[in-house]
Every structure is written in C-alpha cells, then in structure tokens.
Specification:
The protein is α+β, with helices and mostly antiparallel strands and about 130 residues long. It is built from 6 helices and 3 strands. It has a single domain, classed as Zincin-like (2-Layer Sandwich), CATH 3.30.2010.20. It is about 50% helix and about 10% strand. Helix 1 crosses helix 5 and helix 5 packs antiparallel against helix 6.
C-alpha cells in the first residue's frame, strides 16, 4: 500500500475517535514510519523478530499536572510494514490500523497494556457483530 493511503487510514482512525477523547488530546504528533528501528526493540525489550505495530512516547495525560507545559509533543508512531505483514487484505489493514491507533491513544491517556487488551477485545467483538 502506498504510504499516502496508509497515512489516510491513520487519519481516519483518529477522526473516528469519540469526541470526548478527541477534545482532550493536545500536544500530540501522530506519524507513520515503515518499521520500528532497532532502538525501539531495545527500549521495549522486544525480540528483534517480533513485530512492533506502534509506539507511544511522552507524558501520559493522567500524569500531567498543573505545571505541565513547555514540553515537546508526545509522539505516536504507527509502523506500516509490520501491519501490512500481518494482514491479508486492505480491509484487514484498515481494521488493524484502527486498533493500533486506539491502543496507542490509550497509552496517551495512561492506560496500561492489560487495560488496552480488554478494550481491544471488546472492539473486536463489536466489529465481528457488525460484519454478521
């Protein structure tokens, strides 16, 4: 898939976030890269042959106090190549991008991986219901 089209899927996933979350998001950059650099694998302790689909770096929203300011933007990076590798169709890519964006935005708000896993399982159930 062309990078422009993939970036459009990321933008659509962000636009589809519930309004109550979108209005709280500030000082955040979302970008697409081909794949995670070796540094990300080292920082996360991930096996080099695993697939990292996205990352969040920054100060989670729930940890920002009254003195939060003059900080560089938080960064969500979505990695195109590993998402494409685990998907067979363009529709699957779209769905996976949506899930990864939601996962990383969850980290922006300070949710842990176990909390995000529960949310993702609920999302997948609702997606399957929509298809049936």
């Amino acid at each position: 898939m062309e990078k422009d089209k993939f970036e459009q899927l990321v933008e659509e996933a962000l636009a589809d976030l519930p309004e109550e979350f979108k209005k709280l998001i500030e000082n955040l950059v979302v970008m697409v890269e081909e794949e995670a650099p070796a540094e990300v694998y080292r920082q996360t302790g991930s096996h080099p042959l695993s697939r990292i689909l996205g990352t969040y770096r920054g100060i989670p929203f729930k940890h920002r106090g009254p003195y939060y300011g003059n900080n560089p933007p938080d960064i969500i990076t979505i990695f195109q190549k590993p998402i494409e590798e685990i998907c067979a169709t363009e529709e699957e890519i779209k769905q996976e991008v949506r899930l990864v964006v939601i996962h990383e935005v969850g980290h922006y708000f300070g949710l842990s991986d176990p909390e995000m896993k529960k949310i993702e399982e609920e999302l997948l159930r609702s997606i399957k219901k929509e298809k049936n």
